[in-house]
Design brief:
Two copies of one chain form a homodimer.
Chain A lengths: L4 E6 L3 E5 L5 H8 L17 E4 L10 H6 L2 H5 L2 E3 L9 E4 L7 H8 L12 E3 L2 E2 L10 H11 L10 H10 L5 E8 L2 E7 L5 E7 L3 E8 L5 E8 L9 H10 L1 H27 L13 E8 L1 H8 L19 E4 H4 L8 E4 L9 H10 L8 E5 L4 E7 L2 E7 L20 E8 L2 E6 L7 E2 L1 H13 L16 E4 L2 E7 L10 E4 H25 L8 E5 L1 H5 L2 H6 L11 E5 L1 H10 L2 H13 L1 E2 L8 H9 L2
Parallel strand pairs in A: 1-5, 10-13, 13-15, 16-25, 18-27, 19-21, 25-26
Antiparallel strand pairs in A: 1-2, 3-4, 3-5, 6-8, 7-8, 8-9, 10-11, 11-12, 14-15, 16-17, 17-18, 19-20, 22-23, 23-24
């Protein structure tokens, strides 16, 4: 099947599809990534450098690249976007210096919407000697050192800081490195150690994190990991149930979340230390600032808060406002005095990850009406109009993650991510291009849209059994999208009426949310100027298919923006900006929560939204 | 041996000696315990009630007592102090209602020098319902409940409080009990639970604690326990050494201190629950306020602070000012949100226990010059004159605790606590009255004083070998105080030249400290109007002996006050008084530390002080 190939650009997480053989530069332009290309694509300026993984599906280096790029860089996967051609789906990383100035800050993480305005000031006080006969206490020497820098008498010390200080301070005079927030000393490190920050997007399924140099704002490493809590259930509701069943399970769930963050912190430090001398290797002990965003259940579990009320109506959280803790309190293996910031959540179902997405995606900027949606098991939708932000949570279920679909799977290698039906012939494309294993969300969406367009299913999702593609399976009529011979495990990959019903339920939840939200805000969906779609599934889904099955309203495609993991980007921006944290606090108080199911028109609207 | 018998009065911890057969009332008057005795001692008013333990060495109840006291009280050990006569050393407890008004508050623990002024206010907010469609978070419901009581919007919540709150709050409306300090919510308990406080004197050897009702100020139970850290060394220096030898030992020492406090808390709760219904039993979870005093090394180990610098010149602590922590931070098994207050320490060798002693003993009151001393392995001495407080630490060593003395022992059953030599015949008395096991501090002090008075040793501590009591032992000349036949283990209890030398070193350290301190403060010791002696050894020592060997200056006996464990009393007073905590903070800043060994006249004065 000859079709467009998707190229994803990190760290923005945005992507675009191009024909095979198109230059990477074209993919970047389509994805809205402003790569510097002063020479107009001839390769002479050498500014459009990107980094691909080893074995990425790109054309071999051209003569121009061999001339412009030092051999070490070429070997390390650096390519010129104007020269390298796309031969398969792939992911490349855009270094900050390759971006046009307007995007550089965002890309390099040097600043985000809040700018570079770290909430903790770094200083290097010189401590006087602890001389006889009346030696100063370690804390008093630190206070004297801060005084010599013209800083105020610090506030009473916290125990955890004194614990660190005791081992750091020797009787002789010397410098240390300390973090100050207002007049409060937050942390202390041996003098000259690099000061690091960690931003975490704690998803129910996947946890993404990035490591930042807190003095320059430079992003040093990024990575992701499965949430170890999956052993307790795939979705948040089953984890709440697990924690209510057994006293110990809540603590175990909390520890599982803590351990994922700890492992990511260690991995990112190791990755960012690559090629450094051992004594320059970075350690999680140097992470003195951390921001964690996530849904409200993840937030509560990590913080060790009771989740019982999140599993029962009226689904009240323990706390909604922003929290500042220390790593020590949470059991995080960072610097024990690291400040860990949790932005506010709006309700039991709308967490700080949605706020971070709103901040990072630019949804709150500009004049017109904007919709911003993050699709998951629960999909959070915000409608921004005339300065007001109204938000709802739609329980779309796990169908788009491949769950509860007979041949469903996550968007991993071998997942069918695109489906087309032309002239009665079904074609498809898999993640990685190999034999098919199952359907992931975007493939399911395409399949339903194509079956409907071809008239193989009607608006209620029922099969036209007269169509030659429809056969009778064990569970009633079904359509084989991929025959056994072309799959990895030699088994037909079919969609049944039941599978289609699950997709209908999922898309209906989202459409119903959009309709009721617009009604609540008194806005016509047709007037929405920007429609922002965030998250992994949201970035890979085909907009035409999403409109065809009625999940999204029919708006011109140019109003849509597929922004990738904007929650993780928001976490990175909050990490380095005290101002943005304040904006988030105000946003948390300003957002209005719309509880869909308590509206009298919910049921009627939901049934209507089921139609394809 | 027919001699005076010591009676100790709890909870003040003061004592006095009376002749056998004297009424308890006389002992109380000598000890300065103001018992109510409206009838002048005839027994008719029945107000001088005290409580003795079962089997205490008192005369049988008189007819007057049988008439005045209900049979149940008599059976429980209640006696009239004017009727019961002392037949042996004993300890009685004075209920608050038996004391004259000026002492009642102090005795009952209802208030101390700071009065009853708890730093945390107890309130009972009613929480509104968490109703749909936009349910309030648990924290917001608490804030609403406080607002309804006319209290300010609380400060941002601490994580540990939210952890407690989550499990406490149900969706339905209801009350809880909460502690407020300023605008900050400190802790939360189920509604109606009794709110408790714990005061701890964390000594190197013994840990004393008391449990207080924080609403009435009533003391509910008191107790003591050996410090489990003794396994790591008897004195603080050997514990510092242990903690420096092995990385893990400091943590183990900290845990040992924490576990003693935890065990005491549990025991006191159980003791105070006696006779209550199971659902009214008190639990350490209800302890929401705690004060811990102790020497600086104990303070640092319990707090998990580095003690390495406390073992090396210039012996600088990590922190001197007062600290407020939570039980959760410290690993204390109280309410995790309990506020744990550590009053300030003055130096590496002068801890908060000395400050607490100064506050509770009244050393800072009045006009004249006062000396206040706490005798231990390190003895802390303060000289208060003209509003200035000058303090030193004298390393008196463990001889008075029986250590490093061939036949030495702690003041336990069988310890020789009194020695007299009359007409060449040595008599003695043991703790408990049974066969002798060894010498405790007060017995050693007496023995040296008597040997000197009789001319058996000279002013340098050398034996007169012509004296018939002196025999040649394995380690040179010695005097057998108690022959093998009268000991528990059938072994002569003798004192050698070496033993006497140890006592000389100990008493010289104290006298040298007193002399140099008076010189530093520009005060003549002869003008000292009050000489306060605190601590167990200080309370039981014979003042005449202490003066005879030159440990204390020769002042009229009425200027001396032996006040018992005043540090523990200070901890109890600090527990219930925010004002007194402020006084302690100011005292910590005001006290001047005198480092004896850095004075040029230290050595000469010490050598002079060795003379008997």
């Amino acid at each position: 099947m000859e079709e467009s190939l998707r190229v994803t650009f990190l760290p923005l997480g945005v992507s675009a599809a191009v024909e095979p053989g198109a230059p990477l530069l074209e993919a970047a332009q389509r994805a809205g990534v402003g790569l510097a290309a002063d020479c107009g694509g001839s390769g002479s300026c050498g500014r459009c450098r990107v980094r691909a993984e080893a074995g990425a599906a790109l054309s071999p280096p051209t003569l121009v690249e061999e001339q412009v790029l030092p051999p070490g860089e070429l070997a390390a996967g650096v390519r010129l976007a104007c020269q390298a051609r796309v031969l398969g789906a792939l992911t490349v990383t855009v270094p900050g210096e390759s971006a046009v100035p307007s995007q550089r800050l965002q890309l390099s993480g040097e600043a985000g919407r809040g700018g570079f305005d770290p909430p903790t000031a770094i200083c290097h006080p010189a401590l006087p000697e602890a001389s006889e006969p009346a030696p100063l206490a370690a804390w008093e020497r630190l206070a004297a050192g801060l005084g010599a820098l013209g800083l105020a008498e610090p506030e009473p010390p916290r125990l955890c800081l004194l614990r660190a200080l005791g081992g750091l301070v020797r009787p002789a005079a010397g410098r240390i490195t300390a973090g100050l927030r207002g007049d409060s000393v937050c942390w202390a490190l041996p003098h000259g150690r690099r000061v690091l920050g960690l931003a975490v997007d704690l998803g129910s399924t996947k946890v993404a994190a990035s490591l930042t140099d807190m003095q320059s704002g430079q992003i040093l490493a990024e990575g992701g990991m499965m949430n170890a809590q999956i052993a307790y259930g795939e979705d948040v509701m089953s984890r709440i149930a697990a924690s209510m069943e057994k006293e110990s399970a809540r603590a175990e769930l909390g520890r599982a979340a803590v351990s994922v963050v700890n492992r990511l912190a260690a991995e990112l430090c190791a990755a960012a230390s690559g090629g450094q001398e051992a004594d320059e290797a970075l350690s999680p002990e140097q992470i003195t600032e951390c921001v964690i965003v996530g849904n409200t259940v993840m937030h509560h579990l990590l913080l060790g808060l009771d989740v019982a009320q999140l599993g029962l109506a009226p689904f009240a959280p323990v706390v909604r406002e922003a929290l500042d803790c220390t790593a020590g309190e949470l059991g995080l293996a960072l610097n024990p005095n690291a400040g860990v910031h949790f932005p506010p959540n709006l309700s039991g179902f709308i967490g700080s990850d949605h706020l971070a997405m709103l901040l990072a995606s630019g949804a709150l900027d500009g004049e017109g009406t904007t919709v911003a949606i993050d699709i998951g098991t629960n999909s959070e939708i915000s409608l921004i109009a005339g300065g007001a932000v109204t938000t709802c949570s739609a329980s779309s279920g796990p169908a788009f993650e491949g769950a509860h679909i007979a041949c469903g799977m996550r968007a991993a290698d071998g997942a069918i991510e695109r489906v087309r039906i032309r002239a009665g012939r079904i074609t498809w494309r898999t993640v990685g291009g190999g034999p098919a294993v199952g359907f992931c969300g975007s493939g399911l969406l395409d399949a339903v849209a194509e079956l409907k367009r071809e008239g193989i299913i009607n608006r209620h999702g029922a099969f036209d059994s007269t169509c030659p593609l429809v056969r009778r399976g064990g569970n009633g009529p079904e359509v084989v999208v991929c025959p056994a011979a072309e799959t990895r495990f030699g088994k037909d990959l079919a969609l049944s009426r039941k599978d289609i019903g699950r997709i209908q339920l999922a898309k209906a939840a989202i459409r119903c949310g959009l309709e009721l939200l617009s009604r609540e805000a008194g806005v016509d969906l047709a007037t929405v100027g920007r429609f922002i779609v965030a998250g992994a599934f949201g970035t890979y889904l085909d907009l035409e298919s999403a409109q065809a099955i009625g999940m999204f309203p029919t708006l011109p495609f140019e109003r849509f923006r597929q922004v990738g993991n904007a929650a993780a980007m928001g976490a990175r921006q909050l990490l380095v900006s005290g101002r943005l944290r304040q904006t988030a606090r105000e946003l948390g108080r300003r957002m209005r929560h719309c509880e869909l199911t308590s509206r009298p028109d919910f049921q009627a609207e939901f049934i209507k939204a089921l139609w394809l």
